[in-house]
């Protein structure tokens, strides 16, 4: 295994029953500092794969090596420790409605570190400023727009300076301006904080702006992998159709 | 690691060298060191040397940012030296944080607070009257055949609200009847009037205890469930979806539950009345050796149809209270999931309060009319 390998899936089969796996025999690798997009039509298994990669759903077979550790060979406590080195931004933001935005972002620090309250507060404010939410510290999630909530969720996912962040549909449902701002934030995370990023997305504009590499899924398997220009010129009919459906 | 500060007495400058990572494990020590330097009077300048720094994370950036503020606030100069481009980029993020805007605190006097509460109460009353009126209007549409209830919903609620609640209502009514009989026998036996326990428990179960006990059980069970279901629908945007489709949420959601409760509550109350009397009969049989036939004959002689009508009418009113309270508070939940919990709790508290209030009013009216 490459020392720079952040995520490695070997013969990974995911799904809800062994009779009907969602994705089979997946082989993929994400290296340090990369932004990798997982693409595919609705129901292609991207989100199920992401749940398995992030420890939320055990695989049907095969293995997931995350940050050099065989995740599903670890006991629960060791897996929790491993997952603290990662971040996850959910499609439905998953912010706690009873907490302010600042408290949402500061929650992992309060629960998992012994840092003084002043530093925790400063870190949360810095991260909120980084995602463009300075001044929103005392609002509740219900008082934020969808795009702002997504950015707050991203701030929370990154507050522990994880080595890798997983984002499920980060720009889904956002207007192009807000989506572009979110893309910029993700690029800052990679360029300034050195965070590796895996995104699941349907938004090809965002993927073009962000991803170094994309992996395309369909028909229960991995269809293609490569840079966006490579995939756009793929000879695989499904891959080609995915990128050119609108222009057809 | 952060090296201990070296102090140049001549220039009154303290220099801290960052040696290695400045991350979560090192941030507290680094921050404490800067705080201590900020307090010292013999120092005019604090220098942080990043020449041997490795990784800086958010905690490191925050501790530098906070340290700078503390040192500057104490009138000293703060400088970073030997900062490479990568570290500078990270530290610049901290510089981008604008000062925290203070939340505007609106000072209010007790009179203003009281006024706000009165206005809130008025708004709440108006909204509940509106909901009641809308449900009434929609009920009229359903009765005249202009609109329909969702198919199968009422039957499904009758099963979940009524049949599923039958065991708990029966058990509590039997225990209540038995307890009532125990207490009655102890007192009545002193006067040689033990046989009148049948009159007492029969009347008490039919007029008061069965309607009240059933209402309290159904408030905790069904009222809370209505508030939680409708509150969750509010959080998930389902109520907005109904409004957007032009479908009345009163007809679609409230009426089936209200109709189900209107059947279920009197039915369970009636069952509760007889089960409660059976519980007291059992105790009378065991404690007084009173034959069941005599006990039952006294109940029939004392409790008349008007008593049943009194108890069942109250139970019907209680059903409306439970249904409307649950629906009003559940639909009033906000997008915040914690408001669903609050709505559920308030439904139980407000529901039971209103039930006892109405019961007290009914008892007062009944006693003034001479029927109690």
Protein model, in words:
The complex is a heterodimer of chains A (about 250) and B (about 375). By secondary structure, chain A is of the alpha/beta class. Helices cover about 35% and strands about 25% of the residues of chain A. Chain A is built from nine helices and ten strands. Chain A has a six-stranded mixed beta sheet, sandwiched between helices. In chain A, helix 3 crosses helix 4 (about 115-130), helix 3 runs parallel beside helix 5 (about 145-160) and helix 4 packs across helix 5 (about 145-160). Chain B has helices spanning about 25-40, 60-75, 85-95, 110-145, 155-160, 165-190, 195-235, 240-245, 250-290, 290-300, 305-330, 340-370; strands at about 5-10, 15-20, 45-55, 75-80. Chain B has about 375 residues and is an alpha/beta fold.
Overall mean confidence score, pLDDT of chain A:
88
Query: Structural class, judged by helices and strands of chain B?
Result: alpha/beta
- List low-pLDDT spans of chain A: none
Strand order of the largest sheet of chain B: 1-2-3-4
* Total beta strand runs of chain A: 10
What share of the residues of chain A does DSSP label as strand, in percent?
25-35%
Helical percentage of chain B: over 70%
Query: Could you say how many structural domains of chain B there are in total?
Result: 2
- Topology of chain B as a string of helices (H) and strands (E): EEHEHEHHHHHHHHHH
**What is the overall shape of chain A?**
globular
Radius of gyration of chain A: 18 Å
Which strand-content bin applies to the residues of chain B? 5-15%
In round numbers, the mean pLDDT of chain B is 88
Largest interface: A-B, 30 and 29 residues
Shape of chain B: elongated
Number of helices of chain A: 9
What order do the helices and strands come in, and which of them pair?
The complex is a heterodimer of chains A (248) and B (372).
Chain A: E1 5-15, E2 21-31, E3 35-40, H1 46-53, E4 61-66, E5 69-70, H2 76-83, E6 86-89, H3 101-112, H4 117-130, H5 146-158, E7 164-168, H6 176-191, E8 196-200, H7 204-210, E9 213-218, E10 221-226, H8 228-232, H9 237-244
Parallel strand pairs in A: 3-8, 3-9, 6-7, 7-8
Antiparallel strand pairs in A: 1-2, 1-4, 4-5, 9-10
Helix pairs in contact in A: 3-4, 3-5, 4-5
Chain B: E1 6-8, E2 13-22, H1 24-39, E3 45-56, H2 58-73, E4 77-81, H3 85-95, H4 110-143, H5 153-161, H6 166-190, H7 197-235, H8 238-244, H9 249-288, H10 292-302, H11 305-331, H12 338-368
Parallel strand pairs in B: 2-3, 3-4
Antiparallel strand pairs in B: 1-2
Helix pairs in contact in B: 1-2, 2-3, 4-9, 5-9, 6-7, 6-9, 7-9, 7-10, 7-11, 7-12, 9-11, 11-12
């Amino acid at each position: 295994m490459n020392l720079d390998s952040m995520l490695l899936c070997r013969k990974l089969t995911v799904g809800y029953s062994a009779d009907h796996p969602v994705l089979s025999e997946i082989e993929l690798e994400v290296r340090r500092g990369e932004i990798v997009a997982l693409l595919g039509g609705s129901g292609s298994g991207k989100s199920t794969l992401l749940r398995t990669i992030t420890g939320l759903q055990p695989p049907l077979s095969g293995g997931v090596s995350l940050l050099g550790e065989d995740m599903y060979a670890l006991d629960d406590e060791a897996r929790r420790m491993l997952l603290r080195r990662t971040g996850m931004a959910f499609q439905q933001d998953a912010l706690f409605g009873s907490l302010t935005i600042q408290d949402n972002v500061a929650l992992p620090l309060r629960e998992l570190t012994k840092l003084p309250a002043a530093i925790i507060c400063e870190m949360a404010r810095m991260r909120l400023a980084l995602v463009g939410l300075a001044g929103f510290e005392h609002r509740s999630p219900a008082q934020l727009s969808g795009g702002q909530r997504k950015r707050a969720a991203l701030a929370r996912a990154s507050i522990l300076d994880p080595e890798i962040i997983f984002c499920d549909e980060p720009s889904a449902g956002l207007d192009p301006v807000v989506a572009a701002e979110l893309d910029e934030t993700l690029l800052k995370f990679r360029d300034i904080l050195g965070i590796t990023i895996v995104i699941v997305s349907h938004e090809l504009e965002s993927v073009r702006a962000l991803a170094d590499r994309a992996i395309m899924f369909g028909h229960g398997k991995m269809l293609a992998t490569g840079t966006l220009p490579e995939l756009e010129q793929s000879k695989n009919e499904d891959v080609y159709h995915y990128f050119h459906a609108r222009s057809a | 690691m952060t090296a201990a500060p070296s102090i140049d007495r001549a220039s009154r400058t303290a220099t801290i060298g960052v040696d290695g990572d400045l991350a979560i494990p090192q941030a507290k020590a680094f921050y404490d060191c800067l705080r201590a330097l900020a307090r010292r009077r013999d120092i005019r300048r604090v220098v942080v040397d990043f020449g041997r720094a490795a990784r800086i994370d958010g905690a490191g950036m925050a501790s530098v940012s906070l340290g700078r503020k503390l040192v500057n606030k104490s009138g000293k100069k703060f400088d970073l030296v030997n900062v490479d481009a990568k570290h500078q980029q990270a530290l610049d993020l901290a510089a981008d944080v604008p000062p925290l805007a203070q939340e505007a605190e609106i000072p209010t006097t007790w009179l203003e607070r009281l006024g706000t509460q009165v206005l809130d109460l008025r708004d709440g009353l108006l909204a509940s009257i509106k909901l009641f009126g809308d449900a009434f209007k929609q009920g009229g549409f359903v009765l005249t055949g202009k609109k329909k209830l969702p198919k199968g919903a009422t039957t499904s609620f009758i099963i979940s609200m009524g049949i599923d609640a039958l065991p708990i209502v029966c058990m509590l009514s039997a225990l209540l009847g038995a307890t009532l009989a125990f207490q009655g026998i102890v007192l009545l036996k002193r006067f040689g009037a033990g046989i009148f326990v049948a009159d007492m428990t029969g009347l008490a179960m039919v007029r008061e205890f069965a309607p009240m006990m059933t209402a309290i059980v159904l408030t905790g069970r069904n009222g809370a469930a209505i508030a939680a279901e409708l509150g969750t629908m509010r959080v998930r945007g389902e109520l907005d979806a109904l409004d957007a489709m032009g479908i009345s949420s009163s007809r679609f959601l409230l009426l089936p539950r209200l109709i189900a409760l209107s059947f279920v509550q009197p039915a369970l109350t009636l069952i509760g009345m007889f089960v409660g009397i059976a519980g007291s009969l059992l105790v009378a049989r065991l404690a007084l050796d009173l034959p069941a036939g005599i006990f039952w004959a006294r109940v029939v002689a004392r409790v008349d149809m008007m008593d049943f009508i009194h108890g069942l009418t109250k139970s019907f009113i209680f059903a409306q209270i439970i249904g409307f309270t649950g629906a009003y508070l559940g639909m009033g939940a906000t997008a915040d999931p914690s408001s669903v919990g609050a709505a559920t709790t308030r439904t139980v508290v407000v529901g039971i309060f209103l039930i006892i209030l109405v019961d007290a009013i009914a008892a007062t009216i009944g006693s003034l009319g001479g029927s109690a």
